[in-house]
Structures are given as structure tokens and as C-alpha cells.
Amino acid sequence: MNIHEPAELARLTFRQEGKFLVADLVYTDDVDEGRRLGSIHIGLARIQDIRELFVDTMRHSAAHILRVALGQDISFSDPLPLPESERSGNA
User: Fold this and answer.
1) Burial, 40: exposed, middle or buried (Cβ in 10 Å; 0-12, 13-18, 19+)?
2) What is the dihedral of CA 60, 75, 10, 7, to 10 degrees?
3) pLDDT, position 4
4) DSSP structure class, residue 86
5) Burial letters for 58-80: b for 16+ Cβ neighbours within 10 Å, e otherwise?
6) More exposed terminus of the chain, fewer Cβ within 10 Å: N or C?
7) Cα separations in angstroms, 49 against 52, 56, 61, 89
8) How high is the pLDDT of residue 42?
């Protein structure tokens, strides 16, 4: 890894579980155990403006958690699909 390349510390994942869209913060060293940050009823998540607000809120929450833990600002890459091996249901 190049010293100037940012390290991946965690991923913020979104997926549908039953009637909810859930957001989990998954640390790269603990891929089996995500930390639930929030959820929203899927009916509301289908409304684009509400979904965007939910995603932005979860991103800010994850950034704050990591900023407090690490003492430095955090940036997110553009969204990527989960690897096939980590998908389930309506991922």
C-alpha cells in the first residue's frame, strides 16, 4: 500500500432486512460483526428524498464515531456494491 493511499478502516453498509433498510458500520478487522447504526421502514426509504437524508445521516454518524475513535477526519469513497459472498436476501 502506498503511504498516500487512505486505509479502509470500516465500511458503511446498507441492505434490506424484512420491512427495513438497515445501516451497519462494519470494521475491516471484524467483518462478521457489524454495528447497527440505524434503520428506516422500506416504504419511507423508497421516497428518494427521505432515503438520501437517511443515507447522509448514517454517513455523518459513522464519520463521527470513527473521528472520535481515531482523532482524525474520515472520508468515504463512492458507494460500491457488496462482494457477492457478503450479499444476502435483497442486498
Assistant:
1) buried
2) -170
3) 45
4) G
5) bbeebeeebeeeeeeebeeeeee
6) N
7) 5, 11, 18, 24
8) 97
C-alpha cell at 88: 444476502
- Going through 1-91 in order, the beta strands assigned E by DSSP cover 10-17, 20-27, 34-41
Contact criterion met (CB below 8 Å) for 86 and 26:
no
Q: Identify the CA nearest to 80 among candidates 31, 8, 18.
A: 8
Question: What are the residue ranges in the chain where pLDDT is below 50?
Answer: 1-4, 91
C-alpha cell at 71: 482523532
Report pTM: 0.75
